[in-house]
Structures are given as structure tokens and as C-alpha cells.
Amino acid sequence: MPINTFREDETTKEVIKIHTIKRLFRYMINYKKEVISVLLLMSIIVSVNIINPILIKIAIDNYIAFDNYNGLIRIGILAIIINLISMVCIKRRIIIMSKVSNEILLTIRQELYTHIQKLAFNFFDSRPVGKILARIIGDVNSLKDILNNSVITLIPDFITIIAVAIIMLLMNFRLALAALSMLPFLIFIMNYIQIKAHKRWQDFRNKNSNMNAFTHEDFSGMRVVQSFAAEGQTSDTFEKLLQEHKKSFISAFKLSNIFWPIVEVSWGVGTVLVFYFGVRLLGTGTITVGLLVAFTSYISMFWHPIMNLSNFYNQLITNLAGAERIFEIMDIEPDIKDVDEAKEMEQISGKVQFKKVSFEYEKNIKVLDDVSFTIEPGEAIALVGPTGAGKTTIINLISRFYDIQKGDILIDDVNIKEVTIESLRSQMGIMTQDTVLFSGTIKDNIRYGKLDATDEEIIQAAKSVYAHEFIENLEQGYDTEINERGVRLSVGQRQLIAFARTIISNPRILILDEATSSIDTKTERLVQKGIEALLEGRTSFVIAHRLSTIQKANRIFVVADGKIIEEGTHRKLLEIKGLYYNLYKAQV
Ligand SMILES: Nc1ncnc2c1ncn2[C@@H]1O[C@H](COP(=O)(O)OP(=O)(O)OP(=O)(O)O)[C@@H](O)[C@H]1O
């Protein structure tokens, strides 16, 4: 998948709109009971609305015309009672529907989150985190109105329109035709607008996503931005993205806003026509005054739901782009997944074999080419080589973060594709250069390696990687709160916590991308000792930058151009005076 950045719009696959709509409303199936009660409440509300003009007609034609005040009071009381009932129903309907739509949003967000977690590295490689967040937060939120209004508007308003149209046709056919005459025109125009509007809202969501991606990237790298005094430059970029965002919104909004005047004009023309013909019919005595008054009420009762429906339709077009973006991600099949009959990987001893492994991230750009090696349990391997040689790639493949195109990777003689990913990765300890800690206490962070670890185990783990002393010296000890980037701690201290988190999970194979940064001497020594403690008795792969680590390794693999070009102990490699010799000389 090509890499997307905040500078480019994401491309959304064209899907048939009705499929997206159906898929969205399928979530309602779990709320049948609530939907039915809302529909029942709506039927009461709609009936009251429809009865009101009839009561007015009766009041005018039967009571006011004959000075029958008792009848007028009776009908007035009846009107008050049914309208009060209707108000109670409206309130109840709002409560139920907000609950249903909120729960559906939670479900969609949860499904999306769980699904994204299953996706392989290449999904994350190809899109900025900000764009993923935009889908989980913004796009999901954009569905709220559609869900909320679907039951409240769609079904009841359709029923109202049909019921009112029938009543009008029965009352007076000609007046009814005059009232409805603008309907075909309205439907035609709306259909025309929605095609364009949908594209513009898609564009708006993309611009929104770009802005999210940029702000996420910018704020995550704020230290770099500030240290390069690049705030002006990033503000300019933000301003540019903001302008694009604004422009796309205005363009889409303008189009959507045409909906209203068109409905209002159609409504107005219908009303004028009814009055025009109504007055004439009144003159000829074909209709009564009460009927004309009732009819005018029905016109607004007919056009009101049409207004609501066009509003709903507008919302649907506006927010469908959000639903499409959500379902598009949900439809991405995880590249790395368990095969149908994947077995649980038993407790391993730590033998690792690469058999003629070739790998490419992008088609036809070979990163590893026919790599083979065998590592015995407990061996410590240092990977060295020029930048971009393929060292990180080798260690990523052992944990099956990517699938290889050719060859086999075996652990304890079992092909890693034949076992479940969870059972494979749970036996690996992986530490990257960028130590990621999560917000919470230090204790929580160490426990992440073994969720059921006791406090004693946590302390023991910290002690074994020499992290205990500095943690104890913190005011709150193991309960010290740290934020997501571990900012209150030094680089070395963060690493020590990560070591404790790894050692508590007791992995058989340890993968370590050693940090290049040099840390203050005391913590540096602790980190060195921590690494040694970690490596003890485990198969380990270390992308080594420290000479001490390299020299202590059982074997050193020199990686260059996607191949292992030299292999052996430090001493042996120095003797052959190849690439390792040169790298080593350059370092010392
Ligand atoms: N996610 C990715 N998508 C596409 N290409 C990638 C990806 N990760 C790495 N590469 C490319 O694969 C090659 C090997 O990268 P790798 O990270 O394995 O090198 P390395 O030896 O670990 O380098 P360094 O010492 O600089 O970390 C490089 O050319 C790199 O550009």
C-alpha cells in the first residue's frame, strides 16, 4: 500500500451508497424492542398531529358556525388532552433514541478499534496515526445524527406524508393535486444535488483527516519542532491545511444548503395554488370554510415531514462519507493472521532458523535476499551493518510482524506460520529503540508484561534489571504516575522500566534494538547491566551499537544489502578484515 501523509487525501473506494446505508442500519437490529417502542410513540405523536386539523374543522363547521359553545369546550378539552399525551411521548422518544444511537456508536467504535488492533504493521506503515484517529473519533461521531433521526424521522415522516396525502385526496382531489404539484420537481432536483454533495462531503472528511494527521504528527514531535524553532513553518502548514478544510466545508455546505430553499419554494408554491383554487371552490360552494382551513393545516403537515426528510437525506449525504471510511477499514483483512488450523506454540527452547528467506515491503524492492541461518537455544546474536541493511527487518520477521514472500522461518523446528500469532509473540520479548511507556503508574507499566503479576514479582523483575533502586528513590516509588511518553523520566530510566516489563514476561527469545543514544554514565552502566540480565539464558538478537554488547555476543551477523555477508565471533571477524573490521575501526 502506498504511504499516505497529511499532504495527500486518502482515496476511498467507491461503494454503492445503499449498501453502506443498509450496513449502518443493520446495527439497529439489536435494538428491536427500543425501535418498536419509539415507532409506537411516534404513531401516537403522528396521529395527534393528523387529528388536530380535523378537530379544527369540526370546531369551525359544526360548533362555531352554530354557536355551540359547549361542543367547542368539549372539543377544546379533548385537543388539550391528546396534545399533552403527545408531548409526553415526544420526551420519551428522545430519551430512548439517544440511548440507542449512543450505544450503536460505542459498538461501532469498539468494533473498529478491535479490528484496527488486528491489522498488520503495513497498515500502520502506510497511514499516519492522526488519520486512523480521525476515523475512530470523528467519522464515528458523524453517524450520530443519522442514527438518531433514522427512526424518529424516516419511518414516522413517511407514514405522515402518505396518511396526509390520502386524507387530502379524500377531502378534495383538485386541491390535493395543487398542494402536491411541486413534488416531482423537488425529487428530481434533490437527486441531482446529492450526487455532487456526497463527493464534496467525502472531500471534506479527507481534509479533516489530513488536518488530524498533521496535528498529531506535529504535537508528537513538538520537542523537535521547538528545538529547530520551526513553529512558524508548522503554523504555516497548519494554516494551509485549515484553509483547505474550511474551503472544502464551505463548498459542501453551500450545496447542502440549497436543499432548504428548494423545499420552501415548493411548499410555498403548493400553498399559493391551494389558496388560489380553494377560494374559487369556496365561491362555488364546493367546499366549506372549515375544509379550506383544515386543508391549509394539512399542507404544512405534508411539507413539514418532507422538510424533515430532506434534512435527514441531507444528513445522510453529509455523513455517509464517514460511514464509508469506517466500513472501508473494517473490510481490510488483516494481512497477518492465523491459518485455519493454527496450533498453539508450546513452551519453546529458543532455536531459530531462517531457510532461504526473501522479503520485500513493496513489490519488487527486495530487502532480504535468500537469508539462511540457524541459532541454537540460548545463543546471543548481534546484528551489525550499515543503515538500511535489513537488520530491523530480520527481527521483525521473527515475530511475524510481516509475512515473508519466500523461504521459511522456524522456531524450535516449527514453521511460525503454522502457530497462532498470540502464542508465538507471547514467547518473545521485543524492545525497540523508542521506549514506549503507557500513561499510568510505573507498576502498571511493568505489569503490562504479565497482567497477573503480583507486586512482589514486579519488584523482583525491577531488581533483576537494576531498575529497583531508582524507582525506590522516586517520591511515589512504584506508584509514580508517568505519562504516555514517559516524559518525567530520563531515557535510561525509561529503558530500565521497559527491561523490567520484558523480563517479567519471561520470554524465551529476546529481541533488542539497542539504543544508540549515550546516557549519563551511572544510568548507562545500569542499562548495560540490565541488558546483560535480560539476555541471560535466552536466545537473543540484538541490533548492537555498543561495543560491549557486540563483543559479548556468541556470534555476530554482519548484514549488508539484505544478506548476511559475514558471520562469526568478534575476534574471528576482525581477523578476516572485512566490513565488520572497517565498521569496528570506524567506531573505535
Ligand atoms: N515499513 C517499511 N516499508 C517499506 N520499506 C521499509 C520499511 N521498513 C524498512 N524499509 C526499507 O527496508 C530496508 C531495510 O530497512 P531496515 O529497517 O531493516 O534496516 P536496518 O538495517 O535496521 O537500518 P538501521 O540500522 O538504519 O535501523 C531499508 O531500505 C528501508 O528503507
Plain-language structure description:
With 588 residues, the protein is of the alpha/beta class. The chain folds into two domains: 17-30 and 108-330, ABC transporter transmembrane region fold, CATH 1.20.1560; 352-587, P-loop containing nucleotide triphosphate hydrolases (Rossmann fold, 3-Layer(aba) Sandwich). It is built from 22 helices and twelve strands. The protein has a six-stranded mixed beta sheet with strand order 6-9-10-3-11-12, sandwiched between helices. A hairpin with a 2-residue loop joins strand 11 and strand 12 (563-568). Helix 3 runs antiparallel to helix 6 (144-171) and helix 7 (173-180) runs antiparallel to helix 11 (259-283). It is elongated. 34% of the residues are buried. The model has no long low-confidence stretch (mean pLDDT 86). Residues 125, 361-362, 367, 385, 387-393 line the site of adenosine-5'-triphosphate.
Whole-number total of structural domains: 2
Q: Which structural class is indicated by helix and strand composition?
A: alpha/beta
- With strands numbered from the N-terminus, the spatial order across the biggest sheet is 6-9-10-3-11-12
Q: Into which percentage range does the β-strand content fall?
A: 5-15%
Compute the average pLDDT.
Answer: 86
CATH architecture classification name of the largest domain: Up-down Bundle
Q: In total, how many beta strands?
A: 12
The main sheet comes to: 6 strands, mixed
Per the principal axes of the C-alpha atoms, what is the gross shape? Answer: elongated
**Residue windows where pLDDT falls under 50 for at least 5 positions:** none
Radius of gyration, in Å, reads: 35 Å
Tell me roughly what share of residues is in helical segments: 55-70%
- The CATH superfamily name of the largest domain is ABC transporter type 1, transmembrane domain
**Bound small-molecule species:** adenosine-5'-triphosphate
Annotation field: number of helices: 22
Question: Which CATH first-tier class of the largest domain would you pick?
Answer: Mainly Alpha
Beginning-to-end CA distance, first to last residue: 41 Å
| CATH fold naming of the largest domain | ABC transporter transmembrane region fold
